[in-house]
Amino acid sequence: MLSKIKLQEFNEKGFTVIKNFISKKQIKSIYSQIDEILSFILRKNNITFKISDTIDQKYLILNKKNPVLKSHFYNSLKLMDSLNAVVFSKKITNTMKEIVNNKNLFVLGQRLRLDHKEDHHHLPLHQELNNISNSFALMWCPLVPVNKKTGSLCLIPGSHKYGHLKYKQSNKPAEHHTIGIVEKILNGRENENYNNKIVKDLFKKKNLHFPNLNPGDAIIFTTFMFHGSTPYKGKNIRWSLLSSFIPYDKVPYILDHKLKKMQISYNANYNKINV
Ligand SMILES: O=C(O)CCC(=O)C(=O)O
Ligand SMILES: [Fe+2]
């Protein structure tokens, strides 16, 4: 059972942290599957590696020797039964049911993200658009320790209360934004007209919250919560597990025969969607 305090926190701040949401054993099962798949790809392609190499080393070797196959591997990670077993575990689904207050969930977008020095990824601040609903919860669970220093997901607590905010570039995927970049905001280098006064006031260094998480601790946040990330500065790879948990009765597509796509477009007015 999730405590009342956590639920209250989720509703008030737009997010909550659950320590040890994923167990050491579950993390191990994911890593061991990754290890086997990576070793298989390297062996089959005659790419030299040592059995004693860590999975991070194996991944970086593949990245260097065959970036295309690295991408194929990356795209396949979400299919791993170990990852899906964790996402669909009773503990996780039951907790997410409490959080979104519905016993009947759709689960979408379960995947692993990898961030490391040679593949400098980070996401500018954004709300979670282009999903199948405007009312759901997301889980972000690092499999390595993360904090402000290592680089991490960060959030703007309470920002969900404004609902959907349209601003410059909000009509495209966050990975294509050239604004709302967390590092720039932290260093006072983003002097941008976001074309929205509320957003301008929100995207400030003082509003950014970086969680301090151990492997398996999860941060769970809601659709309109502004969040982004900074590049990983740790030695190896930041592996993180993500998934969306959607109450089935908040999905316009299942009720509106005129809708051609399940995903809600970036241009939609998310505040007017009333399912
Ligand atoms: O892991 C990250 O950098 C953030 C992920 C995220 O917000 C997303 O995929 O929408
Ligand atoms: Fe996101």
Report on this model:
- By secondary structure, this protein is of the alpha+beta class.
- Helices cover 29% and strands 15% of the residues.
- The chain contains 8 helices and 7 strands, in the order αβαααααβββααβββ.
- The strands form 2 sheets. A 5-stranded antiparallel beta sheet has the order 1-5-3-7-2. Strands 4-6 form a two-stranded antiparallel sheet.
- Helix 2 runs parallel beside helix 3 and helix 3 crosses helix 4.
- It is globular and about 55 Å long.
- 2-oxoglutaric acid (AKG) binds next to strand 6 and strand 7.
Q: Report the count of strand segments.
A: 7
CATH topology of the domain at 4-22 and 104-272: Jelly Rolls
Bound molecules: 2-oxoglutaric acid, fe (ii) ion
**Estimated radius of gyration:** 19 Å
Instruction: Choose one word for the global shape.
Output: globular
Taking all residues together, what is the mean pLDDT? 96
Within the largest sheet, what's the order of strands?
Answer: 1-5-3-7-2
User: Quick one: CATH class of the domain at 4-22 and 104-272?
Assistant: Mainly Beta
- What's the helical proportion of residues? 25-40%
Ends: how far apart?
A: 27 Å
The count of helical stretches stands at 8
CATH architecture of the domain at 4-22 and 104-272: Sandwich
* Helix and strand element order: HEHHHHHEEEHHEEE
Largest sheet: 5 strands, antiparallel
